[in-house]
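@channel anyone free to eyeball this complex?
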Amino acid sequence: MTDPDVAVVGFAQAPNTRQTYGTTNGVEMLVPILHEVLDGTGLTKGDIGFWCSGSSDYLAGRAFSFVAAVDAIGAVPPINESHVEMDAAWALYEAWVKIRTGQVDTALVYGFGKSSAGDLRRTLALQLDPYTTAPLWPDSVGIAGLQARLGLDSGQWTEQDMAAVAARCRTDARTNPHAQISGAAEVSELLAEPYLADPLRAHDCAPITDGASAVILADADRARELCARPAWITGLEHRMESGNLGARELTTSPSTAGAARAAGTDGVEVAELHAPFTHQELVLREAIGLGDEVRISPSGGALCANPMFAAGLTRIGEAARRIMDGSARRVLAHATSGPALQQNLVCTMEGHR
Amino acid sequence: MTGISEPLSAPLEVGFDYTRSLGPVLGRFATALRQRRIEGVRGSDGRVHVPVVEYDPITAEALDDFVEVGQQGTVLSWSWTPHPLEGQPLAHAFAWALIRLDGADTPLLHAVDVVSPQEMHTGMRVRVRWSDAPVGSIRDIACFDPVPDDAAAGGTAADHTGEAPPLPESTSEQQEPVAMTTTPVHLHYRHSASPEESQYLRALAEGRLIGQRCPACGKVYIPPRGACPTDGVPTTDEIELPDAGTVTTFCIVNVPFLGQRIKPPYVAAYVLLDGADIPFLHLVLGCAAEEVRMGMRVRAAWKSRDQWGTTLENIDHFEPTGEPDAPYESYARHL
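replying in thread with the prediction:
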């Protein structure tokens, strides 16, 4: 292969809502966005070289829900397909590798999650160590609260800093038609609200969201044909930390820092960060080394819509969109998975190659 | 469900008792817990890990240097749980905490039993409250209690059984190390049928069989689908199908299994309703199992109307009509 470059050439997302009427295999959310993202590039399903999805059977409450989701594609004749039981940002990583091997020239990546079908806070306890931690059913908000207080106690951030993140995200989300939560918000008003789970208030926590998103990747030749301003991937790295919560440094994110260093973050103008809790955005900004000049999560971020197993892919799509619409030259997207930012992915993209 | 057009949904309970073998490191940790002791393991950098880790977080070497640690510790961080969820250590409001036990270097996640968040603070001292009947599980630690200031001194491994009830005889006498742990997991969902399936299920409750046609390939699906697996578009035009059809293929069930409702041998068959393009699985009864054959014509035997619901179980089974067999060509492309 002469040119290893890969670009994002299309992005679509389903409405982010507290509860969809659809099934947990995501078909009702996926059919419209697969058509939308294909139509946007002029491709048909037969043109796609590789399909890769991210979703979770624990969220769906049924086995092989991702296989049922393949119905949304219409997989006849048979397709080249794979799946990760992770956020679809990691499915995008697999698709990126697949294109770089030269086996395929295009890939469609999608993620979906219907969190409303179960009790998300309990379900997420099952991603913890199954011997010493998960049997206690620690919920996702409780664990995030432990992480938040470590930073509050050490003076690394304040409740005002956390509320400021929420206020900025909600204000930004007013221009995002796909956002689940949006509206003008004052830090003082947010801080007047009671605790949801001390030290976290409701505004510190991402909403429970049903949603889905899809991204099309293409190799260099196809990207130039399909898109006026492809978002060229300049770095794509992911790192993981220990599954033992107590062994981790929870107020820093070494895995994010390592991924960002390897991906290269110079000149980033916009960063879409997958922070389901306000203090996690502060951790991520520090770990990546994002200065005040960088626009953070102009979509409103995961705090305004957090479709499980799609929200990380959505960050990549939202960041790529800034390149494709000409409003930014160099962007960064981040995705996370696991408890308290255990696993992190950083994707950098730019407009001209 | 209220509105007639809303999709049907119903509770879905998923449960499983996960049974895991523990191996030498976690097994030793669990065995100590059963004896109301807490053992950590020392890593390559000298840090004592509690809970134990099987491999060194830095060098990945297998670890086996066990260290008994204290049963009091210090809260490094905490969060308040006003409304506990099913399965959590306490049924009333409590605090999650990262607790560094005396003699340990990494903190353990567990619950602290206090009545309000005002009674929690970082740096406070807490002590293990043991469960009445330890089995060799992290849940042998029922939770932690605050240590009153005047009792905070001491807290060595020696005073650990302080206020705990005596170990049950059967437990104290057990010498076999703990090798397995069982974790019951029960999750509760609201399962939704798709809009297309919901129409089908509601029609079944009226004794009608409803299919839908794929607008792209023209195939008639029963049940209708949110996406035609060939074309990826929802099925649309509704078609009422008769309750008679053809056996396309079948198997004779000879093997008993848990929950079986019919005495073997019996026949599970794919039935292709007249006018449908996709067969579904059902029972063929009303004749000897060895008489069932590909191409056999069958008709639904419905349960009595008072037993009907939004389910294909309204049809108890299919039985032979006595018509001549359908020619192979009539169902060959539906196999």
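from a first look: The first strand of chain A starts at residue 6 and ends at 13.
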